C-alpha cells in the first residue's frame, strides 16, 4: 500500500521520476506504474531492477521485517536508499542497513514525514529558540482504531517477524520519532503493553510508557489500535516558559510567557483530516514528497538529510526498549542491548 504514496510523492517532484519498480504481484506493480509521471518498468527480479539504466535511488516499501535484504542489495548496487518506516524491526537489523550504506558510500533515508509538517517544524523551531525554557514534559498519544479485518488482510500483519510489533512499531512510531526529535535523547523507559481488542495477532494493540529524557524532562507515550472510533494523534510539549499542542497537523495550543507577533496565527486550523486514525489509507503523501525533496537535496549538495539512517534507528531502539520493559516489568535504560532476531526483546 505505502508504495503508492511514494509513487504519488515522486510524481510531484519536478526533478525526479519513477523509472522502475519490483513487485511480486503483477496487479500491485501495475498500480504503482499507473501513478508514475512517465514510463515505469515493472520487474519481478530485484537484481534486474537494480541494473535498470538511470536508476539512482531505491525506495524500500516491503513489510517492516523485510527491509534489510533489499536495502542492502540496493546499497551494494551503488544506489542511494530510502526505507519506509520503521527502518527495520530490531536495532541490529537497522545497524546492518546503516553499515551496508556506509560501506557502499551511498546515502540512507528513513521515512518519517511527520517531521516535515509545518506545525511540527514550527514546534521544533520554538524549542531550538529556547521559547519553552527548560523542557519539563513531552507527551504523545496515538489512539487509533484498526478492525480485525485489517490484521487478517495480510499474513505479515501483527507478527513479530514482519510487523516487528503492533500499535507502537507500526502506527505510533511516527510520534515516537517526533517526540525524541523534539525532546532529545531518551535515558530510560518503563512500560506496559497488552493485546485487548484483536485476535490472532502476536503483538500489542495497546501500550503506555513513561519516559525519562537525558535532559531530565519526563514524558508519556500512549499507543493503541483498539480505541474506537480512532482519535487524532496528539503531541504536547511543556516547559517552564511555554506549552504547545499539535493535533494531527494543526497547532491547537501555543502559549508562551513571552508572546511574539504572529503567535495567534500559528493556532489557526489548517487541515480537515483524521489522518490514519481509523483508515490506514486516509493519509496524505505531502510529507513523503517533502522528505524525498530533502533527501535529493542532501544527495546533490553533499549535506546531511534531516532523517538519515542513524536518526531512523532511534525510534526503533526506543520501541524495542518499551517492549523489553513491558516483558520484564521494570525500567529499561538506553542504549539497548537488543536481540538480533525479531520478536519481543
Indicate the CATH class of the largest domain. Answer: Alpha Beta
* Tally of DSSP helical segments: 11
Oligomer: single chain
Mean pLDDT: 96
Give me the strand/helix succession: HEHEHEHEHEHEHHEEEEEEHHHE
Based on helices, strands and strand pairing, what is the structural class?
alpha/beta
Question: Main β-sheet: number of strands, strand sense, barrel status?
Answer: 8 strands, mixed
The portion of residues forming beta strands comes to: 15-25%
What's the Cα radius of gyration? Answer: 20 Å
**CA-to-CA gap between the ends?**
28 Å
Query: Which descriptor suits the 3D outline?
Result: globular
The structural domain count equals 2
Please provide the count of β strands: 13
* Uncertain ranges: none
| CATH T-level fold name of the largest domain | Dihydrodipicolinate Reductase, domain 2
The CATH superfamily of the largest domain appears as Dihydrodipicolinate Reductase, domain 2
The CATH architecture of the largest domain comes to 2-Layer Sandwich
Helix content: 25-40%
Lateral arrangement of strands in the main beta sheet: 12-11-10-6-9-8-7-13
Structure in words:
With 345 residues, this protein is an alpha/beta fold. The chain folds into two domains: 2-113, NAD(P)-binding Rossmann-like Domain (Rossmann fold, 3-Layer(aba) Sandwich), CATH 3.40.50.720; 115-277 and 307-332, Dihydrodipicolinate Reductase, domain 2 (2-Layer Sandwich), CATH 3.30.360. The protein has eleven helices and 13 strands. β4 (80-83), α5 (91-104) and β5 form a beta-alpha-beta unit. α5 packs antiparallel against α11 (309-328). The protein is globular and about 55 Å long. The chain starts with a helix and ends in a 12-residue tail after the last strand.
Amino acid at each position: 500500500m505505502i508504495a503508492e504514496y511514494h509513487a504519488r510523492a515522486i510524481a510531484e517532484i519536478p526533478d525526479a521520476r519513477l523509472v522502475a519498480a519490483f513487485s511480486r504481484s503483477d496487479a500491485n506493480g501495475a498500480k504503482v506504474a499507473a501513478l508514475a509521471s512517465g514510463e515505469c518498468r515493472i520487474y519481478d527480479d530485484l537484481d534486474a531492477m537494480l541494473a535498470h539504466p538511470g536508476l539512482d535511488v531505491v525506495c524500500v516499501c516491503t513489510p517492516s521485517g523485510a527491509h534489510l535484504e533489499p536495502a542492502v542489495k540496493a546499497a551494494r548496487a551503488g544506489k542511494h536508499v530510502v526505507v519506509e518506516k520503521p527502518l527495520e524491526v530490531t536495532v541490529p537489523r537497522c545497524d546492518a542497513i546503516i553499515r551496508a550504506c556506509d560501506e557502499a558510500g551511498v546515502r540512507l533515508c528513513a521515512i518519517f514525514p511527520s517531521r516535515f509538517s509545518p506545525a511540527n517544524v514550527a514546534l521544533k523551531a520554538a524549542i531550538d529558540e529556547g521559547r519553552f525554557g527548560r523542557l519539563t514534559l513531552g507527551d504523545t498519544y496515538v489512539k487509533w482504531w484498526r478492525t480485525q479485518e485489517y490484521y487478517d488482510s495480510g499474513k505479515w500483519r501483527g507478527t513479530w517477524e514482519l510487523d516487528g510489533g503492533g500499535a507502537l512499531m507500526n502506527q505510533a512510531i511516527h510520534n515516537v520519532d517526533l517526540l525524541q526529535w523534539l525532546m532529545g535523547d531518551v535515558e530510560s523507559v518503563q512500560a506496559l503493553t497488552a493485546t485487548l481488542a484483536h485476535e490472532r495477532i502476536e503483538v500489542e494493540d495497546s501500550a503506555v510508557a513513561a519516559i525519562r529524557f537525558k535532559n531530565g524532562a519526563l514524558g508519556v507515550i500512549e499507543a493503541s489500535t483498539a480505541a474506537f472510533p480512532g482519535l487524532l494523534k496528539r503531541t504536547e510539549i511543556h516547559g517552564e516558559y511555554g506549552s504547545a499542542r499539535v493535533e494531527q497537523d494543526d497547532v491547537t495550543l501555543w502559549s508562551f510567557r513571552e508572546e511574539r507577533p504572529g503567535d495567534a496565527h500559528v493556532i489557526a486550523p489548517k487541515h480537515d483530516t483524521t489522518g490514519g486514525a481509523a483508515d490506514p489509507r486516509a493519509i496524505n503523501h505531502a510529507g513523503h514528497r517533502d522528505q524525498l525533496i530533502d533527501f535529493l537535496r542532501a544527495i546533490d549538495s553533499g549535506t546531511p538529510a534531516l532523517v538519515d539512517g542513524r536518526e531512523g534507528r532511534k525510534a526503533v531502539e526506543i520501541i524495542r526498549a518499551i517492549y523489553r520493559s513491558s516483558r520484564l516489568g521494570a525500567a529499561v535504560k538506553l542504549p539497548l542491548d537488543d536481540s538480533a532476531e525479531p520478536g519481543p526483546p
